[in-house]
Amino acid sequence: RWRSNSGNLILLNFVFAMMLQLGLFYVSSLINKNSDDYLLCTVIGVVLHYSIISEFCWMFVIAVLQFKRFVEVLGGPPKWILLKGCFCGWILPLIPVAAVFLWNPNNYVNGNVGLCYPSDLGLYLGVWLPVSIIVVINFVIFLFIVYSVVHRKTECGDVVNNEMMFQWRLAFLLFFMLGLTWAFGFLSELDYGEIFVYLFCATATLQGFVMFLFFIVFNLCVNKSEDLSFSGCSKGCWREEPECRFLQSENPPQCPESFIDSSQPNMCYKISNDKSKFPPKCPFEDVLPFNYYKDVIDNIGPVWMPVRRDLSNGLGFLQWIEASSLYKTEFKKKTPNGTYIWSHSKQEINYTYWSTDAVFDNGLLYGASTPNGWILTEEPASCCLFEKNVEKIEPELKLMFFYSTHNLNLIVTNPQGLKRVNSEFLMYCFTDADARNLLHRYPSLNQTLVADNTIIFTFELHKNGPGRYWCEAFKNFDLEVVRSNEILFRESAYFYYEFMTILQVSYSQTLVPFNPLSSDIINFLEEFFSEINSISYLKDNYFARFMKILDIDEMKNEVLINIHLTHVSKDTETNHDEEYQSVKMQIQKAIQDTVAMKIEMVNFLSSDYCMETIALQLTWPTTPLGFSVHSKEYCFKSDAARLTSLCAGDFINGAQWSVTDEECEIFNRSSVTQTL
User: Fold this and answer.
1) How far apart are CA 568 and CA 61, in angstroms?
2) Per the CATH hierarchy, to which homologous superfamily does domain 2-230 belong?
3) What is the per-residue burial (b if ≥16 Cβ within 10 Å, else e) of 352-367?
């Protein structure tokens, strides 16, 4: 943090130039006395010449900074001060050095001071001239600064002594830092020069020592930017004393170097700027929840946000995936002010805190937060981390259904290997059997048994319809997700027929803020579900359930959704095909009666049977899911085998006939024998 300040970096460059000059003085004296190698002496002389001019150029840069600080107070520091300082301190000294070397390289060897150093005209024009110009300019700046500080209006009479002490300390420090002691060196060439020789030798050698006293021992008061802090005076009284952030803290740091002290007890964290594929390959074992590090985004830009869309079963909602109590809950937040527009359709949205730069695309899976709002990214951004030692134990989750109680039991083996927060396991169970949610997360699990290495939890089945059940937890060592086996519960004693319809819904007519990839779509379809319940047969015998989002067309404001209809009555007098046709007609009627929105039926399928259909002059009879069947016609392939078709699909997406490209020839029944 101290090195991030431009003024401190300039000070470091100045100290480095001063160290280089002192070291080369010593090396130059050794080479001149003990070697006849003129080439080596010339090289050392050139570098020594360069280091001296560089040191004075850095003194000039410091003088300009102090002038801006104490004289032109309102002007602020110059722009690109570090870049300009490096140009002045490291580039400009090359001009006099190159001029002396090109004029006469032997000038560095023929010196009469016992050093590899410029002599004669090279000494006067290459060293004395630029040094004297800088010393004169620095002296003028020094006078301006002292005058400005001394004549600063002070109304606080009881602290005049402190003000005078500050003035003397500042003048003393600047006298040495700006190289004004070299004025004694120039005056030594006049009469009574011996006095100035002693003064020059006594003061010029103290430059580094004085800087050590002021910047280390006296430890000036600096603010958060590592600049000198000052106290103001108003109406005869000093204002509140400024907070000092000393370079050497009175208390030892609680966190290792490069780590930041957290507001949480006994916790240090650091920000990693490395990006990786999901999940982030962080250098430590655990990751802070997003709520801990969301406030640092103003300083470091985009930050990985542990949310993503689950595309394993359609276009799922944006969900939290971090190891916290938010796991797999919907990610949504109303923006308190302002509105945004979609990047493509330019339609106004104000249901979340999306940035105006956000692009909504199927390839962008990961959420990130920026100072301008939320965005979607192809890869996760950086994350905040902390380290802790954890014993690695492999846990196991096993889900079982008990017919006696009609409950699901979750058996956890080696629970020590699961992550806990406030003594509670970060473990959740889910189902897609809920009638009003794409994914239902059980709020809590009932613990029924605790053994040495086993814990059993119990939770109830959903009565709204059939569905899948599973549980997930986080490992304590690396936060890897542990998933149980999956159970599909669909007992004929509870649920009989299962149909699904694909609907194309237009949401362009909605007057309220609407997000088709959130639970807003479920609320939007409430009228349609009400129309279904208004039909007495459907109300008495079926549950309508929103299962998945298949696709979304942002340009047309249309969304393709999957709706399931579950038969919950035990008594039925119709067969499957008759029930299929009856329910299909009644759903079409419900769509026609829904006037507040535009809905179109794209398909209507059974989850258990592929319905009888005619394709390419072939009639395929009603067939159970997962079975292959011959067409009613006798159609033979070139290998004399009858053509078959598979009833493919699954419970969620419905049963559909597989497409076959094989050719066959149809024979009349009269020309076909029953046996070969």
Assistant:
1) 85
2) Rhodopsin 7-helix transmembrane proteins (1.20.1070.10)
3) bbbbeebebeeebbbb
Read off the tokens for 444.
Answer: 């809590």
pTM: 0.46
Cis before 279? omega within 30: yes
- Tell me the per-residue pLDDT of 387-397, one tens digit each, with 9 for 90 and over: 445 567 889 99
- 8 Å CB contact between 358 and 374: yes
**Nearest alpha-carbon partner for 472 in 454, 485, 459, 455:** 485
* CA trace torsion 6, 10, 11, 16 (10° rounding): 140
Which contacts (CB < 8 Å, 24+ apart) does range 337-344 have?
340/373, 342/554, 344/554, 344/555
Q: From the options 3.40.1700.10, 1.10.10.10, 2.60.40.10, 2.102.10.10, give the CATH code of 396-489.
A: 2.60.40.10
Contacts of 525 by beta carbon, 8 Å cutoff, 6+ apart: 505, 546, 561, 597
Amino acid 248: pLDDT: 46
| Average confidence score pLDDT of the chain | 75
**Contacts for 313 with CB less than 8 Å, ≥ 6 apart:** 432, 548, 652
CATH code for the structural domain at 260-386: 3.10.100
- The fold of 498-607 is Alpha-Beta Plaits (3.30.70)
Q: Which residue has the tokens 């095909």?
A: 577
Contact (CB, 8 A) for 596 and 620 = no
Query: Distance between CA 454 and CA 537 in Å, rounded?
Result: 48
Burial class of residue 58 (count of CB atoms within 10 Å of its CB; 0-12, 13-18, 19+): buried
> For residue 169, what are its two tokens?
């300390």
What the block records as the tokens of 653 is: 């997406």
Token output for 440: 């239902």
User: In whole angstroms, what is the distance from residue 305 CA to residue 381 CA?
Assistant: 8
pLDDT at 511: 55
Do 603 and 504 meet the contact criterion of CB atoms below 8 Å apart?
A: no
pLDDT of residue 605: 92
Confidence band, pLDDT 50/70/90 cuts, at residue 143:
confident
Contact (Cβ atoms closer than 8 angstroms) between residue 39 and residue 48:
no
Q: What is the mean pLDDT of residues 180-209?
A: 78
Higher pLDDT residue, 252 or 411? Answer: 411
DSSP string, 589-623: HHHHH--SSEEEEEEEEESSEEPPEEETTEEE--E
Task: Answer yes or no: is pLDDT of 549 > 70.
Answer: yes
Domain with CATH 3.30.70.380 in the chain: 498-607
Residue closest to 622 by CA, chosen among 568, 660, 578, 589: 578
Task: Supply the DSSP string of 264-323, one letter for each residue.
Answer: STT-EEEE-----SSSP--SSSEE--HHHHGGGHHHH--EEEEEEE--BTBSPPEEE-SS
Model confidence pLDDT, tens digit, residues 222-255: 565 555 566 666 666 666 666 665 444 445 556 6
| Whole-angstrom distance, CA of residue 555 vs CA of residue 562 | 20
Task: Provide the pLDDT for residue 563.
Answer: 87
Q: 199 — phi, psi (to 5°)?
A: -65, -40
Q: What is the pLDDT of residues 474-502, one digit of tens each?
A: 887 677 889 999 888 877 656 678 898 99
